[in-house]
Amino acid sequence: MNRFLSTLGLCRRAGKLTYGFDEVCKALKEGKAFGVFFTADLSEKTAKELRFYCEKYSVPLVRTESTMDEISSVLSARTGIIAILDKGLFDSLSN
Length: 95
Description:
This protein is of the alpha+beta class. The chain has a single domain (3-94), classed as CATH 3.30.1330.30. It has 5 helices and 4 strands; from the N terminus they run H-E-H-E-H-E-H-E-H.
């Protein structure tokens, strides 16, 4: 397992992430998200909508090389969008 997925698992166990388009948008609106990741296989339409929300709330958006299947092995849920709710963990994931 690569470092990104391992750290993502740590975020999940710490309760410092949320996932799915609606939940991530809610975290953005509430000012809880420090950064958002989307998977390499996310549809372009969804990525475009996500980009709009992240720009609106001035939150960094990062494309990962991971796929939804790889993320689901860590989160036990199939998703292509993840918001990190802790600045230190986001910084660790984005470097």
